[in-house]
Amino acid sequence: MNYFPWLTIIVVLPISAGSFIFFLPHKGNKVIRWYTICICILELLLTTYAFSYHFELDDPLIQLAEDYKWIDFFDFYWRLGLDGLSIGPILLTGFITTLATLAAWPITRDSRLFHFLMLAMYSGQIGLFSSRDLLLFFIMWELELIPVYLLLSMWGGKKRLYSATKFILYTAGSSIFLLIGVLGIGIYGSNEPTLNFEISANQSYPVTLEILFYIGFLIAFAVKSPIVPLHTWLPDTHGEAHYSTCMLLAGILLKMGAYGLVRINMELLIHAHSIFSPWLIIVGTMQIIYAALTSPGQRNLKKRIAYSSVSHMGFIIIGISSITDMGLNGAILQIISHGFIGAVLFFLAGTSYDRIRLVYLSEMGGMAVTIPKIFTMFSILSMASLALPGMSGFVAELIVFFGIITSQKYLLMPKILITFVMAIGMILTPIYSLSMLRQMFYGYKLFNAPNSYFFDSGPRELFVSISILLPVIGIGIYPDFVLSLSVDKVESILSNYFCK
Prior knowledge:
β1 and β2 form a beta hairpin. α11 runs parallel beside α13, α14 packs antiparallel against α16 and α16 runs antiparallel to α18. The mean pLDDT is about 85. By secondary structure, the protein is mainly alpha-helical. The protein has a domain of about 210 residues. The chain is built from 20 helices and two strands. Helices cover about 70% and strands about 5% of the residues.
């Protein structure tokens, strides 16, 4: 038993160290940038060390567990712990946040507040992925909202206030359902509120009540994931946010919703998940097709990438709903894979915007000649997005395919139909990805412009792009690297479905 509070330190370090940013000397932004990046790197090293030396991969039980009484008055505990489901998203959070702070280098206006908000988000995200208490989960879920709202409304584009308001209305509105579900589960069936994940997982509820809980949680997670039709905040938010904020949104924030679906809806509400999973599969397949068809119609580059994110999240929903080892492992792999690919595409879109100051694809063209390094990286990572074999997206989507085909829960004809529709979605993906590349980089528009010389990608931007490209190729070639983290936990979750 390891008694050192690794997880508390990992959760509290970014926000507490970040609060010292306001006391740094007023000597430009360089000190603030380096201080923030040092905190992120220290946090990432601490996390990696704790997981390497104190986490047993083949143990599906909770590890590095911490349980402290926090508020005596209503028996509230600070409960943290890790299992195979949370370790991948936590490492992804550390990696993407570190690179996003590096991507935020050009920001000079109110940079103290900007970097503090990024570190506050960092704490909230890691706290959510490692919390073992329902109320603590809700608090960490809410901790995200204000930093994202401020990052959007202060450093966004022309319509930033509209998109920030839309974001807060959707996410704060859906959080009410999450809170009702948390309190309902905590209060049900006992004199004292029990918010412990382990106790709640062994609790049985009347079917009607379980369905009501499930719908409440599903609404909250559907907004964050996002699941169609609760997705409309996402393209607006991505279209206006600074690209470093987009990296955090696409890389981590959307994954919180998918993680919640597995952690609460699937693990705690087994009977309701069995009832709802066929409907979720239909929603997931519709989402893949709908977003893939909507994406080519987007004139704004970042909105087009945002719709591609919505399409890829459909595979995660299908994997979670297949109730198979393959499907759930594929969904977890897709969470990690899309975290990398989504983040880097927004980063590259932002670096292109820094140079040409254009967001509409119809105004672009001929950029391959003027910025060849960005063109090369954009092309390679667009291929990763369209699930090219050898890249992480291909493996994740292929495993989800096998998951739905091998599922015992569904009849043969529905499985063939779902697989066929998913395949159409995978065919549509290259259409919007390649047309985006063609509109941006080929042709003659900017090449013939009078002042058509732009600086190409610098060392910092190349470093961020290559740092994400390497794990994308690594996971594509050797997916066991990620799957080995979750495989035992997935088995233990699914064993409940076949026992009960």
